[in-house]
Amino acid sequence: MDSLRSKIVPVSTILAGIVVLWYVFAVVLNAPFQRDLDRRAGETPTTMEFVVRTLAQKKPTLPAPHQVAQNFFENTFLRKVTSARSLVYHSWATLSSTLLGFTFGTILGIVIAVGIVHVTTLDKSLMPWIIASQTIPILAVAPMIIVVLAAVGITGLIPKALISTYLSFFPVAVGMVKGLRSPELMHLDLMHTYNASRAQIFWKLRVPASVPFLFASMKVAVAASLVGAIVGELPTGAVAGIGAKLLAGAYYSQTIDIWAALVAGSVVAALLVAAVGLASRIVERAMGGRPA
Amino acid sequence: MTARLKPSWQAALALLLVVIALVLGAMTQPEADAFASPAAGVAYPYLGTKSVILGLIGLAALGSMLRLRPLAEALVLFVGAHGAAWLLLAGIGGFEGTAKAPYYCALTAAWLLGWRCVAVLSSMRPAERWERLALNLVVPALFGAWLLILWEAVVRGAGIPFILLPPPSAIGARIVNSLPILGEDVRQTIFKAVLVGYVVGCAAGFVVAILADRFLFLRRGLIPIGNLVSALPIIGVAPIMVMWFGFDWQSKAAVVIIMTFFPMLVNTVAGLAASSHMERDLMRTYASSYWQTLFKLRLPAAGPFIFNALKINSTLALIGAIVAEFFGTPVVGMGFRISTEVGRMNIDMVWAEIAVAALAGSVFYGVVALLERAATFWHPSIRGG
């Protein structure tokens, strides 16, 4: 009951407000073109008819929510998943490279973090460059990486996954460095009194302590690698994937398609973040954590 | 005698590599050809410098094993590693793609010495503040320099095609030669699209966060949505914005506004909750109004969070503007240049643009970080408590 009052009601009110605003904007933004159409057809519709027509254009400036929902539903559930028009097909293309890049990125981030925590030289020399590496707008470089790798003969999943890797290793590395250093001095001293070796301290103290940090940063990383995969699809000549769908929509002014692809991307993002959250809860429970 | 020596694995390995390089002989293919037919008089690189390079590495490696003071040891290593690397790079000019195993042995040995140098420097614990600061700058700088040296040496030694990966020296030359074009692109992308979008987006996020703070209902409704939206691939709205606002910088600024809005909103709301009950109770006992509490206690306390958002947004803004240019621009701008020069296979121009973007991103981030130090000087992470 409490969550209904403190969460569901406010969220749904705001969402409803957004939908209403969206309809208003759709009418306002589509009106000039509709007026133009009516003048050419020599019609003088009533206000009500006019509004309905603005919400039913084929290539509207801003498609109405129900148009997007209809397009999304058609392309998700009513088409065969192997069809090139199916959003499931495109989402899968994006999802597979996202997952591959995310896996690489997480492993790379963990390896870097372990190195930084254990080797002073790396801590001093590598950390500033890891931070600097993220000021490079890698997404801007994505097309070049794709084109250059294609010139060498590497195409398909790997180039897209590389971009996702680059975007996702950073949050994991930074979070894991924090996590591996999170055990307090007292706990480290206790391990010393047990005469624990470095490896034992690592496996029995540092790794368990870093798990919450790992999952928190993995949530950020998975969203980042999805963005990487989508942008990585832009220069492949619109073959497959949500990014390709966006680009094709932009070329042919298929606004409804663009919005449906955006919705699909958002659904994938929400699913990915939810999956990481679920994994985190399962691992925490397995490690004996209690819900706070 | 052994007590006077202080061997390190990097120096030992470097010595071993020097010996291997000497045993294997010719550094490059032309040198091997010249030895095979001495009469032909084939020109080859490292005619006189080969012994200097290997000698320099060997001496530096041996010297570093003596019980020197750390600074002297670092200096010996620095001269040995970078002298050898410089001679290697200077010698390969004109003979790209002919390097043989000893070339890479010498390169690896020099790199190991460089690593040892960084290791010695980073284990130093100077007492003076400025010395620590200098060390914190020199160590990453050396690391970056070695990244460039290895890139240059491998690309030129192995003769990797220019299309695939140009050497840093070529990229540097390209930057110097096309400064006007780069300047024009920076003006279009950064000074128009990024700055306008960044300022408007952050300001809007901030204002909405204050509103959400004032009205509990709004906060409860907006924060879950904001958290969800920050995980979404917002960059996808770029084509829509280009359709709505045209090809010029306004559409890019719109993308930047949308991308920077939500991180600012979420972080500011989190920051406004950062002041403790005790402090807020104190403000109540002073009978201060909502706005007085906000400006004198809660906004300053939210400073670290707000600056965190500003930092995140500085890179997001750059990405947003550049990617939005892929969907259509006037014939100027960093994203436009990158996508067209890739098509024309002018990879060095692309890299030049990337270098400029990285520089701009770092400067942007650095300015925000400096502002943060000035504005939240009281915070433990900056006081260095």
TrEMBL record, chain A:
UniProt-listed CDD domains: TM_PBP2
Chain segments annotated as transmembrane: 12-31, 87-117, 129-154, 258-280
Protein keywords: Cell membrane, Membrane, Transmembrane, Transmembrane helix, Transport
Membrane topology label: Multi-pass membrane protein
Coiled-coil zones: none
Residues in ABC transmembrane type-1 domain copies: 91-280
Recorded family membership: Belongs to the binding-protein-dependent transport system permease family.
Protein name as annotated: ABC transporter permease
From TrEMBL, chain B:
UniProt entry keywords in alphabetical sequence: Cell membrane, Membrane, Transmembrane, Transmembrane helix, Transport
PANTHER family from the UniProt entry: ABC TRANSPORTER PERMEASE PROTEIN (PTHR30151:SF41), ALKANE SULFONATE ABC TRANSPORTER-RELATED, MEMBRANE SUBUNIT (PTHR30151)
Organism: Ollibium composti
Protein name: ABC transporter permease
Domain ABC transmembrane type-1: residue ranges: 205-374
Protein's membrane topology: Multi-pass membrane protein
Lineage, uppermost ranks: Bacteria, Pseudomonadati, Pseudomonadota, Alphaproteobacteria, Hyphomicrobiales
InterPro entries for this protein: MetI-like (IPR000515), MetI-like_sf (IPR035906)
Entry's transmembrane regions: 44-62, 74-95, 101-121, 133-151, 190-212, 224-247, 253-274, 316-338, 350-371
Keyword field contains Transport: yes
Keyword Membrane: yes
Subcellular location: Cell membrane
